[in-house]
Design brief:
Oligomer: single chain
Structural class: mainly alpha
Largest sheet: 2 strands, antiparallel
Length: 493
Amino acid sequence: MDPVTIITTVVTLAGAVCTSYEHVSRLVAVVQNAPKELEAIRSRAATINSIVTNLKQALEESAIHKVIEKDKLALNNVTALDGALKDVERTLDEVVDKLTKQSRPTTEGEHYKLRWRYYFSTSDWAQLQTRLNTHIQDLGSSMQSLNTFHVLRVLGDRDNDPARTLRTYAKSILEGRESKLVDERKSSPLASSNDDPPSPLPLDERRLLAKKKLHLQRELLQSARGGEDLDVSLLLDEGAETEWTEANEGMTALHLAAKYGHIRVAELLLEAGADIEAKSDTFGNDFIVRTQKDRTPLIWAAAGRDCPRMQERMCRFLLDKGANVNARNVSGRTPLQEAAMSVPYPNTNPRATMEMLIKCGAHVNAYDMEGWTALTECALYGRKELVELLLANGAQVDAKPGKGDPAIDSNPDLRWSHCEQDNPSPLRHIFYGITPLLVAGNEELICLLLDKGADTQSKDGKGKTIAELASDANHGMVLDKLAKMGKSLRIES
């Protein structure tokens, strides 16, 4: 090879190494944000970056240029660097690709947190780590060779036999490197024989499997909550269980999908065998238990607070899949009652939801353990159109269903009926005897209930009738209505 060609080749290779250095540095910067589980990958990537940096600096030195220009073996060694660096780039590209697919950025946006996929591809990471080890050895040997060529060139010049000294030593380096790589491959666990008898899993491996399982199930709950249907599908394919719940929440993946209005996720879970009548095992203070424990997916959807724009659609989907329209939570509340209680929350659509539930057979006179019906709830919030809807579909105006009402058999015992006479429930004073008329939120609604035959002699927990309450609130329209109905106004001071 003529001197001009040699010099051109050296300059080209130096430029290629600089380009690889920039690419490798960018990739290593990403890998350095990998989680602690990939510490080995991070450290090897940093080592490779350091070697490539040294190679770049070496090829920029004029002394090394002179060595390469004078010796063909040195030139061949540098030429081989081109392929080695491309292999390094490919491996690091794979590392970064897997890292971005199997982890997600943390809230700071700089570091990564592993997703469930990592635990099912640890063998792939082990192979990448082995490849990085090989690259470190190859690049390290190349760097060592460059330094050796330079040193031996100087020594050879002094001994007047540069070629023999240089080639003999360089050949021993290259042969030693190849034999070492062969020995490492033979000792690799990936190359072990399949004829060895299987042995019981060690405790550490069993723990790792348990952690994988826990991570898998938590990912399913998180994906169901967030509506990530693709992730849910993959997790189910990996063996995630549909009925698994977190101890601090007591909700299955289907509960979460229904609560947050993710129809596609709910569909995938039901196809995988999820129980459409599963009851949430929520715990906490008394209020949380009374309102959320034993909710079915349909009850969560009907509540509508967390999926206001999907309230009616999610309920319809679950009913089409066979959900019980008259399911009850621990306090005896039905989906219809929960829909009525969603009135105060913005963007909910209680009317459409209630209409659909009633058409599907919801008991309009179902009451909970506090004696409240859907009509009582709607009256409390002053929603005249909902009160009219319920009354038109058979709701009893005083929230006291008769013996022939379909809800009578499923209605629970009232909470205070279990208390002894001398130890009444603290709720009794607030709730006992409450009728829609006594809690109605405005005069127009009260007059409507009176027109429908509401009992004017019913009393609230403090013993007051509607006439007394209207007088206290200065509801002249109600008082006039009562007077026209011929009811005597006995107002106690």
